[in-house]
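Deliverable D4.2, example record:
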Amino acid sequence: MKFSALLSLVILLFITEKGYSSPPDKIGVLVLAHGGSEAWNQLIVGTTESIGKKYPVEVAFGMALPRTLQEGIDKLENKGVNKIVVVPLFISSHSFIIRQTEYLLKKRNVLADSPVVMDHSPGVENNTHGSMDTHHSNNMSHGSGHESHESSHTTLPQLNFKSEVILTQALDDSPIVAEILYARIKELSVNPNNETVIIVGHGPNPEEDNKNWVKTMESLAAQVQQKQKKEGIASRFIFSVTVRDDANREVYEQAKENLRALVRQASKQGDVIVVPLLLSKGGIEQGIIKRLDGLTYKWSGKMLLPDPKVEQFIENSVKEAIRK
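Output generated by the structure prediction step:
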């Protein structure tokens, strides 16, 4: 045995005997969210204050935007982080945004959809100074889905990082989201037995994604009903629908008429409460109001934010990721 090999073996045995191990993980957190106006972005940043007291935190704005994702990762790694928990603060996992993020973070080998690079950072030319919902409602012509968002490139390079990266789940049907929706409904409720609740989300373009998106919303509705049951109350019905702003004209109009018909019919049998399933005010909520012009319903206009429970969602996501 050569001297160098023998020396390495001795060192290894010494380390093992002394109980030495690799350095402990230094964890960082990368929160993903749609970019928007400065006020919208600051609202998102505010949700990271609690977790920021425990770990280095960065926020990457955009719809799976490679530039901001890479910047966030680089900043965390420059702070000595070697394990990054990525928390997508998006309403649903059933979206090209999540699939592209998975690809960029090397959780997928190939892109599942056409590559999309849309930058909502303030000052960027294609930004409308609103949330993704604002951009969609203002700039889509209900023609061909994501065409106006697509990059001219046929592929996207995956990101560069040395850390272990853990991607957690979007908001989806988290019990925390159900709690917030329940609170929003309760604020407007007077006589639950005589009320129909309609939860309204943005929704994606692809049919399969939309079905799964609605299924997740229905899970939230079921959780709300369970909470009502524990208090001895119950809404007549709780429906879940999406408005699908970015879909082609036919799908968009059908979604619009479905929502209007639902509110119109329900209002003939009692009160109607419409609750938006949106992260924050950014434009899409105004589109919902416009759709319902002339109809009778209750609406507080409150989104998921600002609500401290969203901070709790981020903390819970990080804790669960670390435990695995």
